[in-house]
Specification:
Helix 6 links the parallel strand 2 and strand 3. 25% of the residues are buried. The strands form 2 sheets. A 6-stranded parallel sheet has the order 3-2-1-5-4-6, sandwiched between helices. Strands 7-8 form a two-stranded antiparallel sheet. The chain has helices spanning 2-11, 21-26, 33-47, 49-80, 113-132, 146-155, 172-175, 215-222, 246-259, 262-269, 302-315; strands spanning 100-104, 138-142, 166-167, 181-184, 200-204, 226-228, 236-237, 277-278. It has 316 residues and is an alpha/beta fold. GO terms for molecular function: tRNA (guanosine(9)-N1)-methyltransferase activity; tRNA binding.
Length: 316
């Protein structure tokens, strides 16, 4: 009988059968000490099952009460107008601008695909920043097609659902009135002192690493379109090229619409790598006709000349 009892205890799953302590001690004299210890441990675990279950319920109830108390406190603080996190502050009132900005993408055949993808990212940035701007502009992307459209279809299929932007396959001159157009190019001798909200400002969608100098200026002249450059030389000296990406020009204009200051707009947006410093008002650089967008300011210092030569060497 003792042997049958031992086999019965060893064959059955401990979780399926709880063994009384007396039976474990008196009915299993042939068990090894290790087996006996394991059996007693299993029995103790079974006896404390309900206790563990109750502890879990208590902890769960405590966490629920803590959450309710915290939610109540936050609601009271919200009603009192205190304790609000700065990230939850209400958004500034948005007042759309009547200004129109165009990215001219008619240079598609002049770019490599890797540069077209850079232009694609710059347009994405323009779209995103315009959606968050205090004074969002009316945004146009014209001459959309070729490599750029291919990149957008492959990398950003959701572009067809973008809001508050006009995609046009036609040239900007076919979409907007010619007399309202002003092409923004740093090669223009005309300096844009302030924005005219009745005008349409065109930004050249070209990433060419200085392979096509002055092409935006030449095309504007060929079409008889007004042109101007941002008043960069009046406020900023840089120890690098004056070329600004499409999104930088776009963002500078948005900040100007908000702040009403070119200087603040330039120093808010220009990348730190450009090394921009404020121009001494007595030594403000005067733009020269035909000044290339890739050149340093006209008043080069020795350090600027050295930087320019170093850049030239790196390019080759």
């Amino acid at each position: 009988m003792a042997d049958d009892s031992v086999h019965s205890l060893m064959d059955n799953n401990p979780e399926e059968r709880v063994i009384p302590h007396e039976e474990a001690v008196t009915g299993n004299q042939n068990m090894s000490k290790r087996q006996m210890k394991k059996l007693l441990k299993q029995q103790k675990w079974e006896e404390e099952r309900e206790l563990r279950k109750q502890k879990r319920k208590d902890r769960k109830q405590q966490r629920r009460l803590q959450r309710q108390s915290q939610d109540k406190q936050e609601e009271e603080e919200k009603q009192d107008g205190v304790g609000q996190d700065f990230r939850k502050r209400p958004r500034r009132e948005v007042v759309p601008s009547s200004l129109r900005l165009v990215v001219d993408c008619s240079f598609d055949n002049l770019m490599l695909m890797k540069d077209v993808r850079k232009l694609h990212k710059q347009i994405q940035r323009c779209y995103a920043i315009n959606r968050r701007a205090q004074h969002p502009v009316q945004f146009y992307v014209t001459s959309l097609g070729g490599q750029l459209k291919q990149s957008m279809d492959e990398k950003d299929k959701g572009w067809v659902n973008w809001k508050d932007i006009s995609f046009e396959t036609e040239h900007y001159s076919e979409v907007l009135a010619k007399e309202e157009l002003v092409y923004l190019t740093s090669d223009s001798p005309n300096v844009l002192e302030e924005l005219d909200l009745k005008k349409v400002y065109v930004i050249g969608g070209l990433v060419d690493h200085n392979h096509h100098k002055g092409i935006t200026f030449e095309r504007a002249k060929e079409r008889g379109i007004d042109h101007a450059q941002l008043p960069l030389n009046s406020f900023v000296k840089m120890n690098s090229r004056k070329v600004l990406a499409v999104n930088h020009v776009f963002e500078i204009i948005l900040v100007y619409l908000e702040k009403g200051s070119w200087e603040e707009a330039f120093f808010t947006i220009l990348p730190q790598r450009k090394g921009a410093v404020a121009v001494d008002k007595d030594d403000a650089a005067t733009p020269e006709k035909g000044e290339d967008s890739d050149l340093e300011p006209a008043t080069n210092t020795a350090e600027q000349t050295e930087e320019k030569l170093k850049y030239s060497c790196n390019r080759h």
